[in-house]
Amino acid sequence: MIDKTNEKQISRKKFMLKLSLGLAGACAALAAIPVMSALLAPILETKKAQWRNVGNPEGFEIGSTSLVNFTNADPEPYAGVTAQSAAWLRRTDKDNFIAFAVNCSHLGCPVRWEAQAELFMCPCHGGVYYKDGTVAAGPPPNPLTKYDVRVSNGQVQIKTASLPFTA
Ligand code: FES
After folding, report:
1. CATH number for the domain whose boundaries are 51-159
2. I need a labelling partner for 143 at 20 to 30 A (CA). Which of 20, 73, 107, 112 fits?
3. pLDDT tens digits along 52-105
4. How far apart are CA 154 and CA 126, in angstroms?
5. Where in the chain are the domains?
6. Pocket mutation for ligand 1, best pick of 109, 144, 163, 165 (most atoms within 8 Å of C-beta)
């Protein structure tokens, strides 16, 4: 003869075991999301990088630094003006350009170019960068981020990329 109370307890034990396993599985799946995102991010970012035309090389004087605008790599249809990016483009000689992110490496404020002083100035906390993007003064921990640049098909092109920031 089976004791009904004991049968109920076994059934409750099985239920609790299954519930615990189910919750553990759900927690493991949730914990895996950021890990998988971090592992897949470089692959996904590479796919999104695009070369964008920013102008004819002859439009930039040797030694000049100009603000150029371009569309981000993979803008969403609803992105509006946030689909637009900008960079400071410096022509170093006849064949070479450097493109700097406009965002300060400290907290991302847009830096401005002071042509007479040949310095990039950040209005937020007084960060200063030399014309080659290295830090001259203030809190920025790193030089200005550089984009890849090339001249192709008669156009200066910047390769879109997400920007690394410290905080
Ligand atoms: S954001 Fe540029 S110095 Fe802080």
Report:
1. 2.102.10.10
2. 73
3. 999 999 999 999 999 999 988 777 788 888 888 899 999 999 999 999 999 999
4. 38
5. 1-48, 51-159
6. 109
